[in-house]
Design brief:
Oligomer: heterodimer
Number of strands of chain B: 0
Number of helices of chain B: 6
Order of helices and strands of chain B: HHHHHH
Number of helices of chain A: 7
Strand content of chain A: 5-15%
CATH topology of the largest domain in chain A: Heat Shock Protein 90
Shape of chain A: elongated
Helix content of chain B: over 70%
CATH architecture of the largest domain in chain A: 2-Layer Sandwich
Order of helices and strands of chain A: HHHHEHEEHHEE
Largest sheet of chain A: 5 strands, mixed
Distance between the termini of chain A: 87 Å
Helix content of chain A: 55-70%
Number of domains of chain A: 2
Largest interface: A-B, 27 and 28 residues
Strand order of the largest sheet of chain A: 1-2-3-5-4
Structural class of chain A: alpha+beta
């Protein structure tokens, strides 16, 4: 009987201790696992928030830069033109002889024409009229023609089946991104040609920019978008984020060309 | 008799508690089914053994099912990411209280039918110890403020 009790006691004791240890291990594991997952998520969210802040800052900086440029254009170009016109008008024109009066009026007209042209240029740089009236394809063609006219670089664009226009704000964003990319290629890559192609897929449009200069790879892009430099790239990123677009930088297999691919999803009415 | 009625009430309350905290609809349905099954088993035991006997079948069913539900609750806590740490919720402490209690008394209730009255008296001290632990852990649950230690994700941005 004693042996039986001892046997029963030890089984009970060992079983209870075993079950308790198992339970405690499970509870501790769950607490630590859940804590680790939450902390990891928190860290990821903080990183995402940081990235958002960087993009927002880049966007604000770019806006400020744009404002400074417009202010400088107005102050340095339009201001003196209008001041000169005012100076002509301040002269005692009544006492002048007829030919001098006509000469003065002609000069004032020329100055005012220049001022109108200047303001038109500023307006066009803010919102290209071709983009608004004829769409992305025409705007890019127009933009590329102007670059070609300068003779410094050979640029070519080819739109395949761009029959249904995207929404106006989407087109503007894509156009700005293309402008920024071309601007970057001019500034940093030392390319001799740029070739842009547009392909229409069922649910997205793909724009590819190919150039023969010194370009970026995806790793460079990620690195630059995380660092404090590369305002233009951050701006591209933040613009594309608005339209849920993606951008990829890569070097072609022959290591001679660099390729930038922009993918923008279409909305149901754009298909 | 009193203990058996207490056991029925406790088990049904626990099933209801798990019905409220578990998120999976299939498991909720399973809990409803278990409640009915438990009631039937309890009624059968009542008619078979009368009111002076200890219903070991009911106890074993209760222990097994509550243990399974506890483990499922923990599993849900792992797969569904909450906004607060698990130990900051009262439900966690209640579930843990029952988990420790069931784990501690599992073997005791398993051997109970094979023990005579003297042995039952001798080993029943284990039940008292784990009941005290369970009550203490439930007290912790009462002191946990709802929503404390909640991570406000909106403040991150």
């Amino acid at each position: 009987m004693i042996i039986l009790i001892t046997g029963l006691f030890s089984t009970l004791l060992l079983g209870t201790i075993g079950m308790l240890l198992l339970a405690i291990t499970l509870i501790v594991f769950i607490i630590f696992h859940q804590r680790r997952v939450i902390l990891y998520q928190l860290k990821m969210q903080q990183m995402e928030a940081e990235q958002q802040k960087v993009l927002l800052r880049a966007s604000i900086e770019l806006q400020e830069e744009e404002r400074r440029r417009i202010a400088a254009d107005l102050h340095d170009d339009a201001g003196p033109l209008l001041a000169t016109a005012r100076l002509y008008l301040s002269e005692n024109m009544v006492n002048l002889d007829k030919p001098s009066q006509l000469q003065t009026i002609f000069s004032i007209k020329e100055i005012i024409d220049d001022a109108i042209q200047l303001i038109r240029n500023i307006s066009h740089s803010l919102m290209p009229p071709t983009l608004k009236d004829f769409g992305l394809e025409s705007a890019v063609n127009d933009f590329f023609q102007k670059i070609n006219a300068s003779g410094s670089i050979n640029v070519k664009c080819c739109f395949n089946d761009y029959t249904t226009r995207l929404k106006a704000e989407k087109e503007l964003i894509i156009f700005r991104v293309i402008q920024e990319l071309i601007n970057n290629i001019f500034k940093h890559s030392n390319s001799s040609f740029i070739h842009l192609t547009e392909d229409n897929e069922a649910d997205k449009i793909i724009i590819t920019l190919l150039h023969d200069g010194k370009g970026l790879t995806q790793e460079d892009f990620i690195q630059k978008s995380k660092s404090s430099v590369g305002l233009g790239l951050k701006n591209i990123q933040s613009r594309l984020k608005v339209i849920f677009g993606n951008i990829y930088f890569e070097q072609e297999n022959n290591e001679f060309y660099y390729k930038v691919t922009i993918e923008v999803p279409k909305e149901p009415e754009e298909k | 008799m009193f203990y058996n009625v207490y056991q029925l009430t406790e088990t049904i309350s626990l099933y209801y508690f798990f019905y409220l905290i578990v998120k999976n609809v299939s498991i909720k349905k399973a809990i409803l089914f278990l409640s009915i099954l438990y009631c039937i088993l309890w009624a059968l035991s009542f008619f078979k053994f009368g009111n002076k006997s200890y219903y070991s079948g009911c106890t074993n069913l209760e222990n097994m099912t509550i243990l399974a539900l506890i483990i499922y609750y923990y599993y849900e806590q792992i797969i569904i990411i909450n906004s607060a740490f698990i130990y900051a919720e009262a439900t966690f402490w209640i579930v843990t209280a029952y988990f420790i209690y069931i784990a501690g008394t599992f073997f005791l209730y398993l051997y109970m039918p094979s023990l005579n009255n003297a042995e039952q008296e001798q080993y029943y001290v284990l039940n008292y110890i784990f009941t005290i632990i369970r009550t203490l852990l439930i007290c912790v649950a009462l002191f946990v403020k709802p929503g404390s230690n909640k991570i406000d994700r909106n403040n991150l941005i």
